[in-house]
Specification:
The chain is mainly beta. The chain has a single domain, classed as Jelly Rolls (Sandwich). The chain is 4% helix and 41% strand. It has a six-stranded antiparallel beta sheet with strand order 1-2-11-7-13-5, with no helix packed on it. It has a five-stranded antiparallel beta sheet with strand order 10-8-12-6-14, with no helix packed on it. It has a two-stranded antiparallel ribbon with strand order 3-4. A hairpin with a 2-residue loop joins strand 3 and strand 4. The chain is globular.
C-alpha cells in the first residue's frame, strides 16, 4: 500500500497495490499490520455501507468523545468527493480541509482521524460507499457542521441546486457555533 500524505497531518490517502490480468484484478483492501505500521494503530470495530444517487451529500459528521471515530473510507462503485475537516480548536490546521476524489476505478482509500468532520458528495449517477470505524455509532454523541459553511470554503464540485440533503443535514450549525474537539484532548 502506498501512503500519500496530505496538507493536514494524520489525514492520508491510501493506494493499494493492484494485481491485474485478463481475468480481472485483486488487491488487499485492508491489512491491520501494514495499516498500523504506515498510518495509525487502529482497531476497526464497525463496517458500514451506503448507496447514494447523484447529488447526495452526506455530512459533515463526527462523534464526540468518548465515542470519537476514525474512519477509513472507499468507493466500490461510482465517484465521490470525500472531505475531512480539522475541527480541533487550537490545531495549526483548524478549519482546514482535505478533499479527495474516490472512485471505484482508482481504488483509493481515505483515512480520517478522530477530531475531524467527514462528508462526501456523489458525482456519478450512483455510488456505493464503504467505510470502517474504530468506535461504535453513538447517536447521543453525534456532532455535525454545515457542509456549505463559508468559513470552510469547500468546493464540492457540484452545482448547489443539485445537492440532495437529508432533513437532518439541512440544519447543522456553522463551524463557529458547533461543539468541537480541543487540540490538546487525547483522542486515542
Amino acid at each position: 500500500m502506498n501512503v500519500i500524505q496530505t496538507a493536514i497531518e494524520g489525514v492520508v490517502i491510501l493506494e493499494p497495490k493492484i494485481f491485474g490480468d485478463e481475468r480481472g484484478y485483486f488487491f488487499e483492501s485492508f491489512n491491520e499490520r501494514e495499516f498500523s505500521e504506515k498510518v495509525h494503530r487502529t482497531i476497526f470495530v464497525q463496517d458500514n455501507e451506503s448507496k447514494s444517487k447523484y447529488g447526495v451529500l452526506r455530512g459533515l459528521h463526527y462523534q464526540l468523545p468518548p465515542y470519537a471515530q476514525s474512519k477509513l473510507v472507499r468507493v466500490i462503485r461510482g465517484t465521490v468527493i470525500d472531505v475531512a475537516v480539522d475541527i480541533r480548536r487550537g490545531s495549526p490546521t483548524f478549519g482546514q480541509h482535505v478533499a479527495v476524489e474516490l472512485t471505484g476505478e482508482n481504488h483509493r482509500q481515505f483515512f480520517i482521524p478522530r477530531g475531524f468532520a467527514h462528508g462526501f458528495v456523489v458525482l456519478s449517477e450512483e455510488a456505493l460507499f464503504q467505510y470502517k470505524c474504530d468506535n461504535l455509532y453513538a447517536p447521543d454523541h453525534e456532532g455535525a457542521i454545515a457542509y456549505n459553511d463559508p468559513a470552510l470554503g469547500i468546493d464540492w464540485r457540484i452545482p448547489a441546486e443539485d445537492i440532495l440533503l437529508s432533513e437532518k443535514d439541512r440544519h447543522h450549525p456553522l463551524l463557529a457555533e458547533a461543539k468541537l474537539f480541543d487540540y490538546n484532548d487525547k483522542l486515542y
